[in-house]
Amino acid sequence: MICCINPDCPNPQNPDGQTYCISCGLELVPILRNRFRMIKLLGQGGFGRTYLAEDIDRLNQPCVVKQLAPDVQGTWAISKAVELFQQEARQLQQLGQHPQIPSLDAYFEDNKYLYLVQQFVDGDNLLTLFYNQGIWQENQVKQLLLELLPVLKFIHEQKIIHRDIKPENIMRRHSDGLFMLIDFGVSKQLSGTVMSRPGTKIGSDAYAPIEQMKGGEAYPASDLFSLGVTAFHLMTGVHPSDLLLEKGYNWTGNWQQHLKSPIDKELELILSKLLAKNIQQRYQSAEEVLIDFQRQSTPNFIETLKKFDFDTVTVDVRGNITSHQHRQAQFFRENLGSGATLDMVAIPGGRFVMGSPNTEARRSNNEGPQRTVNIYPFFMGKYPITQEQWEVVMGNNPSDIKGLKRPVEQVSWNNALEFCQKISQKTGKIYRLPSEAEWEYACRAGTTTPFYFGETITPNLVNYDGNYPYGSAPKGLYRKQTTDVGSFPPNPFGLYDMHGNVWEWCSDKWHGNYNGAPTDGSSWETGTDNNRVLRAGAWNCNTVYCRSAYRGRNWAVHRSRHLGFRVVVRSVSSSS
């Protein structure tokens, strides 16, 4: 379908192949400013329409175009709508550097209409996820709160409140499962004036607090109330409008009675304080909520962690083992059914220098410039996803080189995302692909050498093409196939096969260097290249490709007998 951008068009959807709109006669598929090609209508409301478009200047990268065409009358109302639209653009420009808020790409006037262009979030809003997957488990709600509270802390520190937090305005991005806060169309500066006449309510009735619905007043605590109502809706399946009194201002009854089963007492206390009717009894800042989470007796959302022992080795420049070290790490075990399990290793948070130094032999320019990245704690699969694990979750085995304990291969980036979605539904935890920064941090595990073993590797330590040694190491065995996961020594975090065996998909889009890359460990989703990042090297690779800093890439739909992946899940305490 092709869309008409005439805001007065009674039927904007047109069949493909049309040149002019069959309803109003306007020319179809316009290109705004010779740059933005309109693709289809996403939605419309009192302020105008929202379209999916392509940015021609960025190799047809998807974007979202908002057209201001307010369904209001009177000079004051129209002026207020324009002011609001301009304010949204300014706030997106101010806030868009945060990885969980869409960035502003353009703001302009064309043919007497105002347009706002922002980053396209490829994902589903939480209401859609709820309809598709059902009631959220306690772990998922905790994950939601602890990923969004830092976002609210950020926007509130910028003297901005959102005013319309609800499931439809929170997206879960497909690539990495990250929660994104969208639609700042009714937000306002705390120091500014109320966007409407006194006494006019702003926001969505069922999710907004009493002070906002009575007179348009809103504070950080108002956003926190709306986030609490969102969590309540997802966890109980009860629409919050069902709990409002006739006037629409007050919650009725005991919200806990709507829970399908008892929940963690600490989470119940936090939700109760978020949902307090009296604003003075609520949390006054997102930081207060995060502190309460931090004080909880159970620091992680997963089962009690277990410990495992392992030995690491270090080699000299010729690949000879010079030392062994006994180590211990924490993990939890996910039961996937049919005897298959998934071990997730605790990766501590920290800072590291990402990329390779100019002195590293046979480095590529795309491995720099080096910069310091902060990483929140998370859990990562001890091994690449195996064929056994894939079969239990997905019901098939696409691998060319068969073996239940061997890595699954012949999986595209899109296939890996589908696996993450299914295992998330199965377990109640939000599994995803690692960001490129998380992957390198986990691979290095505190080391700064080309490999976590030291200056080189040998086929006794890594599964790669031994005909191509690195540095002073000799040639060695080329197995010409994958090996069972865990066949070689792990790194200092207790992760196996981080060099060789199979390439591992990361969530990020490909960029030719690290200029402008996030420094908080998040996935890099902006950019014009639709390739996705690969790491680790594989069984058929030269040693150069197996280095900790080496970056590979391929199309998201590409499948091969040397492409696999491993999964991560965020620790609940990591965002606090």
Please characterize this protein's 3D structure.
This protein has about 575 residues and is α+β, with helices and mostly antiparallel strands. About 20% of the residues lie in helices and about 25% in strands. It is built from 10 helices and 25 strands. It has helices spanning about 75-95, 125-135, 140-155, 210-215, 220-235, 265-275, 285-295, 385-395, 415-425, 435-445; strands at about 1-5, 15, 30, 35-45, 50-55, 60-70, 105-110, 115-120, 125, 160, 170-175, 180, 190, 305-315, 320-335, 340-345, 350-355, 370-375, 380, 430, 505-510, 530-535, 550-555, 565, 570. The protein has a 6-stranded antiparallel beta sheet with strand order 3-4-5-6-8-7, covered by helices on one side. The chain has a 6-stranded antiparallel beta sheet with strand order 14-15-16-19-25-20. It has a 4-stranded mixed beta sheet with strand order 23-22-21-24. A hairpin with a 5-residue loop joins strand 5 and strand 6. The longest helix is centred in the first third of the chain and has 21 residues, at about 75-95.
Main traits of this protein?
576 residues; alpha+beta; six-stranded antiparallel beta sheet; 10 helices; disordered C terminus
Brief synopsis:
With 576 residues, this protein is α+β, with helices and mostly antiparallel strands. The chain has helices at residues 75-95, 126-133, 138-157, 210-215, 220-236, 265-274, 286-295, 387-394, 413-427, 436-444, and strands at 2-3, 13-14, 31-32, 36-45, 48-55, 61-68, 104-110, 113-119, 123-125, 160-161, 170-173, 179-181, 188-189, 306-315, 321-337, 340-347, 350-354, 371-375, 378-381, 431-432, 503-509, 531-535, 552-555, 563-564, 568-570. Helices cover 22% and strands 23% of the residues.
